[in-house]
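Sample entry (268 residues):
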Amino acid sequence: MAADCGHFCYFYYLCPQTCPFDCGYLNIRLHYSKHLTLSLMKKLLLIVTCLMMLNTIVSAQGNSGDLFKDKIAMGVDVFNDMVMDAPADIKFRGFNPGANIYAMRNFPLGKSNFAFAAGLGLGMHNMFSNSTLQDTSGVSFFSKIPDKTTGGSDLSYKKSKLSLTYLDVPAELRFKTESGFRIAIGIKVGYLINAHTKYKGDDFEDGSKTKIKISSLPNMQSWRFGPNMQIGYKWVNLTAFYSLSKVFEENLGPQIYPISLGLSLRPF
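Predicted structure, serialized as tokens:
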């Protein structure tokens, strides 16, 4: 089914019985985002239920009662950001490396296979694109890097990126077996402490080599939050974070957000 604007309606294609509107493209995107968030919450609830059942089975078989240490431990994540909902003419790189550094304390839940953990950390994101960040009339937007300088010569660049650093407070429910298998699900809330852009390439006017860093960026969303999950064996885990908040404030900038997938080294 095509919407009024001519875009393909993905949700109507998947489930026409539950699609409640003759939608324009913006409504389709909003509808999709709400369905995706609801689906994610259902999956997290299912995982918690399965962990509870698994704990009952493991507890019935007996364990040492000392799977978790009541202590503070450091952890490091390295990940790649997938930038979602970018404007149509703006292309973000497939590889956008980032890192988390954090310290968390375990609070064992009795002698079960579960523990609650909370802590403090830094989350660092780098989003590379074929654009520069601009601001006009109080609204931020990405402007595609031109192919030519104003003088008509070819323009090339090495990188153009938006960098974000958050002070994070992660909280998790952790499950661990004596064999070393572990899984953790939780939520992360962060406060933006640094945001800047970097451009390295030809000057847009005369084509000379230039480096530009802009540290005062308006319209950035101060807070971020979303669910996170880890699964792995002993110290090595796969990690994922889904941001439920946008990078820019609503109606004041592109409504992009990251999904982060990577590797975690954590000794819990």
